[in-house]
Amino acid sequence: MSVNPGLVRVPGTGGVSLAPSGTAEPADAAVPLAAPWLGLGLTTKDGVTLKRSVEKEGTEHWQQVTPARFIYTGHQFTVAAVFQESKHIVLSAYFGGLRFAETAAGSKKYRGVISATPRSDIRSLVLNWVDQVSDTEVYRHRLWLPRCEVTETEETKITRAQESQWGMTFAALAPPDGDTLAVWLTDDPAVLMPAPADK
């Protein structure tokens, strides 16, 4: 058995950002995001949940009960969080592209229309997180989804007892090149496969 407590990672802080679909792959995790990326801001203390699910069915046979192989029928990768800032980028994502506009120039009054017909609202997404072990040992991670869409929203309570919370699940969509569902960028050496020992 091989154990190494020094490889335990704790994502101490991070955030989710969105950009229009087709935005180029961002730089490495140590470089701050620039326009057109917009951060969704504060989340609840639960942070962000990643989920990968693969669906497959085994072949069935007359001569044996064990499948000879599996046929893949589905693959889903999601990023979910509950956001606490009620601002344009959050509300736009939650309501499928909602946009507010000033009712009259200089009025400082705004109007947004929630469509009766849901429409596709595809974005690029970046999830950043940092594990600061010490002043000199800091590991940065950046997960990029080239194309994704909100597939589920949680109920939002309008009450004096808590802040407005906007829970969303983003699901990765098939990319134009047909292969890159997501890209993980990091400066953490723990992700490298050890070189084989000399015989």
Task: Please provide a written account of the structure.
The chain has a single domain (8-56, 70-190), classed as Pnp Oxidase, Chain A, CATH 2.30.110. It is 4% helix and 42% strand. It contains 1 helix and 10 strands, in the order ββββαββββββ. The strands form 2 sheets. Strands 1, 2, 3, 4, 7, 8, 9 and 10 form an 8-stranded antiparallel β-sheet that branches. It has a two-stranded antiparallel ribbon with strand order 5-6. The protein is globular. It starts with 12 loop residues before the first strand and ends in a 13-residue tail after the last strand. 15% of the residues are buried. The model has no long low-confidence stretch (mean pLDDT 93).
Core attributes:
199 residues; mainly beta; Pnp Oxidase, Chain A; two-stranded antiparallel ribbon; 1 helix; globular
What's the layout of helices and strands?
Blueprint: E1 13-20, E2 38-39, E3 43-58, E4 70-83, H1 88-94, E5 100-102, E6 110-112, E7 123-132, E8 138-153, E9 166-172, E10 183-186
Antiparallel strand pairs: 1-2, 1-7, 3-4, 4-9, 5-6, 7-8, 8-9, 8-10
TL;DR of this structure?
With 199 residues, the chain is mostly beta strands. The chain has one helix and ten strands.
The radius of gyration computed from the alpha-carbon positions, rounded to a whole number of angstroms, is 21 Å
Distance between the termini: 20 Å
Helix content: under 10%
What is the CATH fold-level name?
Answer: Pnp Oxidase, Chain A
CATH top-level class: Mainly Beta
- Overall residue-averaged pLDDT value: 93
What is the CATH architecture term?
Answer: Roll
- SSE series: EEEEHEEEEEE
Contiguous low-pLDDT stretches (5 residues minimum) are none
Number of strands: 10
% residues in beta strands: 35-45%
Helix/strand-derived category reads mainly beta
Reported for the largest beta sheet, the result is: 8 strands, antiparallel
- The helix count comes to 1
Shape by Cα distribution: globular
- The figure for the number of domains is 1
